[in-house]
Each structure stands twice: as structure tokens, then as C-alpha cells.
Amino acid sequence: MRRFLLVLPLLLAAAPLRAQQPAIPVTTEPARVGALPVEVLANGTVVAESVVTIRTRVDGQITEVHVAEGQMVRRGERLFTLDSRINQALLAQQEAQLAALRAQATRTQADAVRYQSLRGEGFAAQQRFEQAQADAAAAAANARATEALIQQTRLNIEFATIGAEASGKLGALPLRVGNFVRAAENVALGTITQMDPVLVQFAVPERWLPQIRAALATPAGIPVQATPDGDNQATSQGTLVFVDSAVDAQTGTIQLRARFANPDGALWPGQYVRVTLAPSVDQDAVSVPAAALQSGQN
């Protein structure tokens, strides 16, 4: 008895399966003609407009630290207090010395007035009058010199309270209460980094320089956007404020800086950001959705 095996072609079996697959939807969008900004993309770095180093101008032991590391401070706010008792004692001594010198100056001035009335009675009277005038001038000069020393001592007492010379964020504070600091050693007590506003430094190819220079001459200036690296990062809006005086011959780029208001601290000094510069506007640009663009060899 013979047996037969029936084999169906694979193509015939697969044809009904393809016929059952759903159709792929296609969405269309018309191209539009209108004004669009010409954008230049670059990579940038956030830099602080100013970084102030805190140093002492007098010698003394730190008795109080009024701030904490990383704190936001305002200009004029107290940061450190140094021991000023030696200068205060010196001030009391100088004030007493000034009182004595002023009394001496008063007496010598009175002698000069008295001998002035005796000037015409002989050579001895004239010589004594000149001596009295010299003594009065010397006493007045000594009093003025002591007044200057008192002013200097008062400044040293004032310098014992170290205040913030700028508004910004404090860095690390390496010295604490009890440390002795000297002005001659030039040791930094900390730094203050300005956080608002901040600058973003970046470079663009030199072929954009004519458009950038033309846009800088307009009152509106050139808008700049900066976005920190990472997901869900807010974009900050700023304005171009600096164009370097020369093109880098090695890279063919020119350095630029933009200023950004930064009240919420979204931009951090030293941070990497993506920069979008818009030096001009194309009034007759053809635009299509970005999803419609595909890259190919041609």
C-alpha cells in the first residue's frame, strides 16, 4: 500500500497572514512659510561674573564665625569677627596722648601770642618770639600726627569685623573660631561667588561673525538660550554681552559671552549647558515638523 505526503508551498500559507495585518496610518502636515529665527547651536560653560576671596587686613584670633558654608550672603553682611582688644587698648593710649599734645599746643600758642607783643623791645625778645612760634607749630603737628594714628587704629578695629564685599554664595570655610590669622600671610578665609546674574561662555564658527556684529548694533541685541544638560531642565533666557576681539586661528571660532538673570539658581558656575544663539530672523523660511525629516545619503 502506497502513502502520499502532501506539502503546501510556504508562500501560499503566508499570503493570508499578510492580508490580515492592519494598515499603517500616515499623518500629513502642510509646510508653512513665515518668519523663523536663524539658530546657532553651541556648547557653553556657566561662569560667575565675580568671585571675591575673603582675606583679613589685620592680625587677630577669630572669635566668631557668623555664617555657614554654602550660605547666600549680601554685601555688607558680617562674616567673621577677630579679637580687637589690643587695638582698643592702643586706641585709649593714643587718645590720652592726643589730649596731652593738644594741651601742650594750646600753651605754646599762648606763649607765641605773648612774645609777639614783646617783639620790639630787643633782639632777645625777637629770638624768643621765633622760638615760641616754632614750639607752637611743632606741638600742633604732633597733635595732628597722633590724630592720624588714632584714625588708623580705629580702622584696624573696624577691620576686625570682616564683612561680605559682594552678594553671592559662600564656598568652603577652612578656618574656624580660635584660629589666628595674619594679614601678611594672605590666607583665604573663604570665597563668595556671585550667582545672579551669571555669564555663559561659548564659541561659534567665525562665519557667523558678520551676522552677530550686525545684530549687536540693534537696540534689541541678540537673544540667547541656555539649557543645562539633563532631562526636564528649564531653559534660561539671556542676552549676548561680549564678543571677543579676535578669532581663534587654530579652531576658527570666536568666543562669546551671554548674561542671564539667575534668581532661582538654575544655572550653576562651572556647569555645562547647551546654547542656542539667534543672531537673525529669516522672514521667508519654509518650516515642516521635525518628525517629518529623515536623513539619507542625498
Walk me through what this model shows.
The chain is an alpha+beta fold and 298 residues long. Helices cover 29% and strands 31% of the residues. The protein is built from 4 helices and 14 strands. The strands form 3 sheets. The chain has a 6-stranded antiparallel barrel with strand order 1-10-13-12-11-14. The chain has a 4-stranded antiparallel sheet with strand order 2-9-7-4, with no helix packed on it. Strands 6-5-3-8 form a 4-stranded antiparallel sheet. A hairpin with a 7-residue loop joins β11 and β12. It is elongated and about 130 Å long. The N terminus is likely disordered.
Unreliably modeled segments: 1-8
* Strand fraction: 25-35%
Number of contiguous helices: 4
Label the structural class.
alpha+beta
Mean pLDDT: 84
**Radius of gyration, rounded?**
40 Å
The N- and C-terminal alpha carbons lie at a distance of 66 Å
- In the sheet with the most strands, the strands line up as 1-10-13-12-11-14
The biggest beta sheet, please?
6 strands, antiparallel, barrel
Total number of β-strand segments? Answer: 14
Overall outline: elongated
Give the topology string: H per helix, E per strand: HEEEEEHHEEEEEHEEEE
**Helicity level, as a percent range?**
25-40%
